[in-house]
Design goal:
mainly alpha, 14 helices, 308 residues, Serine Threonine Protein Phosphatase 5, Tetratricopeptide repeat
Length: 308
């Protein structure tokens, strides 16, 4: 009797294994027909696969997707339910959420979206964030980007997209932080340089904006050159670091008196500032107070202030 039970058990295991292999083959046939848009034939193959293996989650899921294409929404949701019963995955929850959204089940859709993100945040957190952003739910979208970044802290796209939303909400410093992180992760992220430059300009950091626009332009954001021409080229910016400034001071002190221009801005009774270098191109001399306007028919004494 004991031997008979063992034989029956072995037969059952072998039979189940054979059924499983055959079910996999039918599922593959169904997938191929699905790719060819032969949907009714694909469903027939999935049906055979499920007759052989009633717990085959992938067959339920793929049959559900075909039913969704054929507008059999109730049948598709029923198949997704079975797929989740036997093998819950973020992908199945996400597809079911989309279908529920299309049928007006907003509460069910929201729950499924959140479950999909919890099960697979790397894949679905950014997708859900994008959906929320498109519908104007910027705070909710930021929360989902937070989950995406927590799951993958090296995702520069998540930082960039979160930065855009923070910018929309007026959190400029938070946006700059996210754009900077995106740049740190990807040093040739031209769009991040461009976006960061725009915020720096809004905040009054013209020098920082011009530097970022310059890098963005070199990386292919050619519209940055338009902004450089408009805001940067004809303005004086401080571009030297402390060592450079010290060297300039040394060079100026060592220069012969004859080489010194007739008038420096720091000599002006109205200013003690050092005239900084121009951005990229040397600024043309302008006839304003505190500068020289040389004339060809009149020589000016080196000790004489310019006439006005």
């Amino acid at each position: 009797m004991k031997k008979l039970l063992i034989l029956i058990t072995i037969f059952f295991i072998v039979s189940c294994s054979d059924n499983k292999e055959e079910a996999i083959e039918y599922k593959k046939k169904g997938d191929h027909k699905n790719d060819l848009a032969d949907y009714k034939a694909a469903i027939e193959d999935y049906n055979k696969a499920l007759e052989l293996d009633p717990r085959y989650a992938a067959a339920y899921f793929n049959r559900g997707k075909v039913k969704s294409i054929l507008a059999d929404k109730e049948g598709a949701i029923a198949d997704y339910d079975k797929a989740i019963e036997f093998d819950a995955s973020g992908e199945v929850y996400f597809e079911r959420a989309l279908l529920k959204l299309n049928t007006g089940d907003l509460i069910g859709a929201k729950a499924d979206f959140e479950t999909a993100v919890d099960l697979d945040p790397i894949t679905y957190a950014k997708v859900l964030a994008s959906i929320k952003s498109d519908t104007g739910n910027f705070i909710g979208a930021i929360a989902d980007y937070n989950k995406a970044i927590k799951a993958d802290s090296g995702d520069e796209e998540a930082y960039f997209s979160r930065g855009e939303l923070k910018e929309i909400l007026g959190d400029y410093m938070g946006a700059i932080s996210d754009y900077s992180m995106a740049i740190e992760l990807n040093s040739i992220y031209s769009a991040a340089y461009n976006k960061r430059a725009l915020i720096k300009y809004k905040l009054g950091d013209l020098e920082g904006a011009c530097l970022d626009w310059s890098v963005a332009g070199e990386l292919g954001e050619y519209n940055s050159y338009v902004l450089i021409n408009k805001y940067c080229n004809n303005r004086i910016l401080t571009m030297l670091n402390d060592e450079d400034m010290e060297q300039v001071s040394v060079d100026t002190a060592a220069a012969p008196a004859a080489a010194k221009p007739p008038y420096f801005e720091e000599d002006s009774p109205k200013s003690n500032k050092t005239n900084p270098p121009a951005y990229k191109k040397e600024e043309k001399m302008k006839g304003r107070r505190g500068t020289v306007s040389p004339r060809s028919d009149e020589k000016q004494s080196s000790n004489e202030l310019p006439r006005h």
